[in-house]
């Protein structure tokens, strides 16, 4: 039976920590599996550290990762995933808006054969103007841009197979794009409707300004999933477009000079030709630098631009016939 690791980033949730434990403990006990709960303190300043220390002393299955400073939710999520030891990793918020009773359903979905299951807060209990409306617009844009069908990319409640989570590289504010990053690596994903509760204690850490961060992160994700392995496809295409524009502008310039005898001093088409040639060269150079950077990236990190689901018959030692008899050759 698969063991579980519950990963919860914590930032100034002193009132919610004991209530979170009280909500998680009976659910996990009823599942009758080995489990651990990793609470990652992201530099809290409200007394959360003391509450986490109490829980760690009370229950050895509570593991605490304490940051030296506030590094953000993505860093806290990455630390939790990196320190988790379970077969299935569950991520959730520490504000009790995610419901722990959804965990068994999501684990069952994973054991049906999925690699990642992410929640959909269909009946979201948040304010409409500054939370629900921006979220709907962002989810629509993300789905159209990446080609990944999703209704709620921002839901923290997820279940992930350990081997898939280990492949994730989370930086900046990329935690909300975990399903897309996993899907890009070939993970089989499913979205399920989950319960959602209004925040009762503490203050929300998000505002409408987060929408702009999501848009910037979306550009990064789009580049990663489509052009990371071969940047020349992007920059080379832009270079070809610039070169084509330069050719058209140059042909028009020559025609104006030869046919009409127009003075080319300061002619806009001549300037456009020169500018397009220069820009095109720069795009090709960026593409070559990007290709070199990609090769260095994969070599230094000792990773491959592919993900293997299964290997079959590799545990069987095979004896291959020699190409020639070594004794005769001697």
Per DSSP, the total helix count is 11
Mean pLDDT: 88
User: Which strands sit side by side, in order, in the main sheet?
Assistant: 3-2-1-4-6-5-7
The SS-based structural class is: alpha/beta
Main beta-sheet strand count, sense and barrel state? 7 strands, mixed
Unreliable runs:
none
Could you say which overall geometry the principal axes of the C-alpha atoms support? Answer: elongated
Order of helices and strands: EHEHEHEHEHEHHEHHHH
The CATH homologous superfamily of the largest domain is called Spore Coat Polysaccharide Biosynthesis Protein SpsA, Chain A
State the main characteristics.
330 residues, alpha/beta, Spore Coat Polysaccharide Biosynthesis Protein SpsA, Chain A, 2 domains, 7-stranded mixed sheet
How is the secondary structure organized here?
Layout: E1 4-10, H1 17-31, E2 35-41, H2 48-58, E3 62-66, H3 73-83, E4 88-91, H4 103-110, E5 116-120, H5 128-146, E6 158-161, H6 162-165, H7 178-184, E7 189-193, H8 210-227, H9 232-260, H10 268-300, H11 326-329
Parallel strand pairs: 1-2, 1-4, 2-3, 5-7
Antiparallel strand pairs: 4-6, 5-6
Helix pairs in contact: 5-8, 9-10
Pfam families: Glycos_transf_2
Protein name: Undecaprenyl-phosphate 4-deoxy-4-formamido-L-arabinose transferase
Enzyme class: transferase
């Amino acid at each position: 039976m698969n063991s579980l690791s519950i990963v919860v980033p914590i930032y100034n949730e002193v009132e919610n920590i004991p209530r979170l434990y009280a909500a998680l403990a009976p659910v996990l006990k009823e599942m009758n599996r080995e489990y651990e709960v990793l609470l990652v303190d992201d530099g809290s300043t409200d007394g959360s550290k003391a509450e986490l220390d109490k829980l760690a002393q009370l229950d050895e299955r509570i593991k605490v990762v304490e940051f030296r400073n506030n590094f953000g939710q993505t860093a806290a999520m990455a630390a939790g995933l990196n320190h988790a030891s379970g077969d299935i990793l569950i991520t959730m918020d520490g504000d009790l808006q995610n419901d722990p009773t959804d965990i068994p359903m999501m684990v069952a979905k994973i054991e049906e054969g999925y690699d990642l299951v992410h929640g959909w807060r269909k009946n979201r209990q948040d304010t409409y103007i500054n939370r629900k409306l921006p979220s709907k617009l962002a989810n629509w844009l993300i789905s159209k841009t990446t080609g990944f069908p999703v209704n709620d990319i921002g839901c923290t409640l997820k279940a992930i197979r350990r081997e898939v989570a280990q492949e994730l590289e989370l930086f900046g504010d990329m935690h909300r794009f975990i399903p897309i990053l996993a899907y890009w690596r070939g993970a089989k994903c499913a979205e399920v409707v989950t319960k959602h509760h209004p925040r009762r204690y503490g203050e929300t850490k998000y505002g409408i300004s987060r929408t702009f961060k999501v848009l910037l992160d979306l550009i990064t994700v789009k580049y990663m999933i489509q052009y990371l392995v071969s940047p020349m496809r992007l920059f080379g295409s832009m270079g070809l477009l610039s070169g084509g524009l330069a050719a058209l502008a140059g042909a028009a310039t020559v025609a104006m000079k030869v046919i009409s005898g127009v003075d080319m001093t300061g002619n806009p088409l001549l300037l456009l030709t020169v500018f397009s040639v220069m820009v095109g060269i720069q795009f090709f150079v960026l593409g070559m630098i990007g290709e070199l950077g990609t090769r260095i990236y994969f070599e230094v990190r000792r990773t491959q631009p592919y993900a293997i689901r299964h290997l079959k018959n590799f545990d069987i030692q095979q004896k291959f016939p020699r190409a020639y008899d070594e004794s005769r050759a001697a």
